[in-house]
Amino acid sequence: MASGYTMLAAVREVKNLQPKKIIVAVPCASLLASQLVEKEVDKFIALEVSSKPLFAIANYFDKWDEVTEEELKAILEK
């Protein structure tokens, strides 16, 4: 979770469904993103929170491939 804004939008949308709890769990997050999301949910879990000024999610994975728009459409159609 780099900036946290996409997750924040998702959390706010889920809140409209009035769940009993909202739990966000991510493998890695920037410190600012975690602070942004953490105050909006019941529980926030991140295996790694980085306070480095340059945060890139791809740095936390051995293999990082971008998903093309065509691949995304095929996944969503399934």
Write a structural description.
The protein has one domain (5-77): Rossmann fold (3-Layer(aba) Sandwich). Helices cover 36% and strands 21% of the residues. It contains three helices and two strands, in the order H-E-H-E-H. Strands 1-2 form a two-stranded parallel sheet.
List keywords for this structure.
21% strand, 78 residues, Rossmann fold, 2 strands, alpha+beta
Average per-residue pLDDT, rounded, comes to 93
- Portion of residues in beta strands equals 15-25%
CATH topology: Rossmann fold
Sheet bearing the most strands, described?
Answer: 2 strands, parallel
Radius of gyration using CA atoms only? 14 Å
Find the count of extended strands (DSSP E, 2+ residues). 2
Protein topology:
Blueprint: H1 5-15, E1 23-30, H2 31-38, E2 43-50, H3 69-77
Parallel strand pairs: 1-2
Give a quick precis of the structure.
By secondary structure, the protein is an alpha+beta fold. The chain has one domain (5-77): Rossmann fold.
